[in-house]
Design brief:
The protein is α/β, with parallel strands linked by helices and about 150 residues long. The protein has a single domain, classed as Homocysteine-binding-like domain (TIM Barrel, Alpha-Beta Barrel). The protein has a 4-stranded parallel beta sheet, with helices on one face. Helix 3 packs parallel to helix 5 and helix 5 packs across helix 6.
């Protein structure tokens, strides 16, 4: 949290537009254990809502889908606009110990991103992180443009 607030304040002091991105663990909370909702609200509170918006990165969509489902209609969700998920459902610890890249299921990846967009229409930035490739991004594009 200190890093997120610090870089946000630094960007604000220099007038540099900034997007704040969080990763989540398999339970949808931040590595510190803080809830995603609380993290977004804390950064906004301590920086006068300086980030242009927030994204979620380096987490499989299934890790944070329950968090989004449980918070539909809450105002903080409108601050979340981007998704750059991992291809693998494995935890960060499991991925650190892998000897081979886990590409996950590109079709499921696309379907989960579409479900997240359905739940939070503010999502308008989609991409991939660890283990994802053109197959994953193509599936997201196919579903979202169908």
């Amino acid at each position: 949290m200190n890093e997120a607030i610090g870089i946000t304040k630094a960007c604000k002091s220099l007038g540099i537009p900034f997007v704040c991105s969080f990763t989540t663990e398999t339970d949808g909370s931040l590595p510190s254990g803080q809830l995603l909702k609380d993290a977004v609200e804390q950064v906004d509170r301590e920086t006068d809502c300086y980030p242009s918006y927030f994204t979620i990165n380096c987490s499989h969509p299934s890790h944070f889908l329950p968090v989004i489902e449980a918070n539909v209609g809450q105002s903080w969700l409108g601050r979340l606009r981007g998704l750059n998920g991992n291809a693998s459902k494995k935890s960060h610890g499991e991925l650190d110990n892998c000897t081979e890249l886990d590409f996950g299921d590109p079709v499921e990846f696309g379907q989960l991103n579409a479900r997240l967009k359905e739940l939070n229409p503010a999502f308008n930035e989609f991409g991939g992180c660890c283990g994802s490739d053109i197959r994953h991004v193509t599936e997201v594009f196919k579903i979202l443009t169908a």
